[in-house]
Amino acid sequence: MAENAFEFTGVSQEVVVAARTAARPVSGYNLDTFRNQNFIKNAKFSMQFTRIPTFAYSDIVSSLDFRKLTFLCDSVEFPGQTLSTTDYRIPGQLKTKIAYARDVNEVNLSFYINDEVPMYTIMSNWIYGISFTSTQNRYFDEVVGTIELTQFEDTTLLNTSSPDAVRNMTIRLIDVYPITLQSMPSTWGDDGYHKVNVGFFLKDLASV
Fold it and tell me: pTM for this structure?
């Protein structure tokens, strides 16, 4: 029994040694390379309307400063895209998928409301102006606008006279209009700030 136990232990050690010597280091793997990257933070963004139909704000103000709307934006979504596919198979080969249509996902934007730019009224007018009765609707080209979403790096140019954010990317949302305007509840028990949440359809997107 003692010899068998000794021989078994010896075999186990040989197997372990062989497994260790067979391992090879991964070339180019360095964890510091990952840690030292300048990752983009999701709070470094801006939103700007570059075009809104006049009927959305004409009864409120004679002209609308789009820059003021930029600072009221609380949260944005950079849109995703989806390809519609169909299965395709050649006899004797594995199945593949063939893409036949591309769709751009809708986005949701959230805005603060102040006493100078009534975002709720503007968005409400925009939706109402598109379809003010069940049988009277404007043409598509009359109701759409344009939005630019900009993502900044987590660094700034250190200039005491004019510190500017460093742009990482800008995505233009083409032919957008609101399709959902969420309710805006009020309560005596909450002393927070009003925000209006709007869902937008967009026809396409482009990098600027």
Answer: 0.77
9 and 96, same domain (yes or no): no
Cβ burial, residue 123 (10 Å; 0-12/13-18/19+) = buried
Burial pattern 94-119, b for ≥16 Cβ within 10 A else e, equals eeeeeeeeeebeebebbbebeeebbb
The whole-angstrom separation of Cα 78 and Cα 47 is 10
- Quote the domain boundaries for residue 24: 2-31
Instruction: For residue 37, give both structure tokens.
Output: 């990257």
Judge contact between 146 and 49, C-beta under 8 A. Answer: yes
| In the block, residue with structure tokens 């360095």 | 30
How far is it, in rounded angstroms, from Cα 55 to Cα 58?
A: 5
22 CB-contact burial (10 Å; exposed 0-12 / middle 13-18 / buried 19+): exposed
d(CA 67, CA 204): 23
199 three-class SS:
strand
Q: What is the per-residue pLDDT across 142-195, written as a single tens digit (0 to 9) for each?
A: 999 999 999 988 765 555 444 567 888 999 999 999 999 999 888 888 888 889
Residues 60 and 20 in one domain: no
On whether both 108 and 177 belong to a single domain, the answer is yes
CATH of the domain at 170: 2.30.110
